């Protein structure tokens, strides 16, 4: 009890010092958001209309294609990277639980321990040997049992968090766990985007195959007419050769497109976490539509929606917590330990708490002396890493705004190009009809037919490509705003 009285005042004084915790609480750094970037005006206008934020829209509501929705749902369940990320999150959760346990005392128990000590005649144990002689006992010359001891104990040790070291470690572990959650969101956003992009590429190739096969049939029909003219002596063999060459060129596009389609199909199956197999696509590229009733947001909202920005900020929180940990390591640490148990040299008295019981209470202060340079270096390194993390956070935000700007300009310019190609396609389609009529009437040559068909094929393929790129650009805008993980 006297030892307890002696240590309690000192313990209370040290605990009172706990209010002097080191480190700084995290505050989000000020970010100078750009007032001007491509599409900023249209975003502000749409914000005033009260439309929903695009990034806040669930991906099932954003995509209107039922087949695509089903494919994405399957990918989120079966994709191997998503499954591995789930395990990473569990690891982060276990580390967080461990950091919380640091605040609790550590307990240890020794249910029963038995010691038996052997000595010889010349063992340096003068007091014991003299006692034997005084009692008229002969000291044996061989090994003999000098003492038997029976012990059972329970020990506890508790480090008091005077300077906030354990608190900072807990904050760092929590931020690290939250960062893994954001990584999963970012992975899901990327997976949704890639599945949708691959699906659109397959629809594009499907449409291009339809165009190529139709053009091939048209070329065969042209060749048939040229051959009839050749048989009638109205044209030369050169006309037949060139028309046939044009037909074979149209035919050669088909296997190339079929190969590209098979590659995209294999990639989509990989994203779904399964072996290559045939996928039935019931929809067409023309069926693809995106809901345009949502606005895209402003830079401030990007922080709330983009997982990579949230992960970058959690990394900054971790760096700030590590500064507190390294600073606290430079100051003394206090550990209180105690134990209770039974100790007896006679087994018959072992269970008697009055005769064999004992209780211990110790307090220890550890002050690093010769490690001052090392601890100071660690603290300075942590300060620099916090500055780097802050710069990374700002850079991530600026990069996010740039991605949104690029997506907006891409959509705008692709739409302009798409409109031009649509108008051009109407002209070329009319040209084909006119060329056939003139050719059959003898007012146009086979070369004009070939040129008209090639021009129409090029425009049709380009229109399909632009439709696909426009759809992918909308997906990229959705992703760049942080959509796809809700």
UniProtKB/TrEMBL annotation:
Superkingdom per UniProt: Bacteria
Membrane topology: Lipid-anchor
Family of the protein in this entry: Belongs to the outer membrane factor (OMF) (TC 1.B.17) family.
Keyword Disulfide bond attached: no
UniProt entry keywords in alphabetical sequence: Lipoprotein, Membrane, Palmitate, Transmembrane, Transmembrane beta strand
GO MF annotation terms: efflux transmembrane transporter activity
PROSITE patterns xref list: PROKAR_LIPOPROTEIN
Protein localization: Cell membrane
PANTHER family (alphabetical): OUTER MEMBRANE CATION EFFLUX PROTEIN (PTHR30203), OUTER MEMBRANE PROTEIN-RELATED (PTHR30203:SF30)
Taxonomic source organism: Echinicola vietnamensis (strain DSM 17526 / LMG 23754 / KMM 6221)
Signal sequence coordinates: none
Database matches in NCBIfam families: outer_NodT
Name the UniProt record assigns to this protein: Efflux transporter, outer membrane factor lipoprotein, NodT family
Record-level GO cellular component terms: plasma membrane
Database matches in SUPFAM superfamilies: Outer membrane efflux proteins (OEP) (SSF56954)
Record has Acyltransferase as a keyword: no
Matches recorded under Pfam families: OEP
InterPro entries per the UniProt record, alphabetical: MdtP/NodT-like, OMP_efflux
